[in-house]
Design goal:
This is NIBAN protein. With 154 residues, this protein is an all-alpha fold. It contains six helices and no strands. The chain has one domain.
Length: 154
């Protein structure tokens, strides 16, 4: 009871007025990182489509889809996504001094973990939706892949 009122007043006067602008500032790099995840998934699936259209090889298609399933764990391909979020380091330094925000690295790492989870979910969903279609007429496979990709991105 003794601490509640001063703490409430401190939050109301010194933190709450800044929350909207802080959130907006932090969401730039976070949104950019998640947009990069989306773009990477889109690019990788487009490469699968193009490769299949060139070769018409179902075995190669299966290999490519299997490689896609490993995309979330491919640190080289995921690195551009993670780098977008590293801009939080600079933004959070200012917050650290103004609002005593600690564990900046933890915030960045958790954001990168969420990005990896998002990619895991995307490739898993893609594989689940596409699996029944692998046996389809090879003329329809590229179209099916495109439809599944759009569904996942949606």
């Amino acid at each position: 009871a003794t601490v509640s009122e001063p703490a409430q007043r401190c939050c109301t006067e010194n933190i709450q007025p800044f929350l909207a602008s802080i959130l907006e500032e932090l969401m730039g790099p976070v949104s950019s990182g998640f947009t990069e995840v989306r773009s990477l998934f889109d690019k990788e699936v487009n490469e699968i489509i193009q490769d299949f259209q060139k070769t018409n090889d179902i075995t190669k298609l299966k290999e490519n889809v299997d490689q896609l399933m490993n995309l979330p764990f491919n640190s080289v391909k995921m690195e551009p996504c993670y780098l977008k979020v590293n801009l939080l380091q600079e933004l959070l330094q200012d917050l650290k001094s103004r609002f005593k925000v600690y564990h900046i690295d933890f915030v960045i790492q958790r954001t990168q973990n969420f990005m990896q989870e998002l990619m895991e979910n995307a490739v898993y969903t893609f594989e689940q939706l596409f699996s029944p279609s692998r046996q389809a007429d090879s003329a329809k496979v590229a179209t099916t892949i495109e439809k599944v990709k759009l569904r996942v991105l949606k």
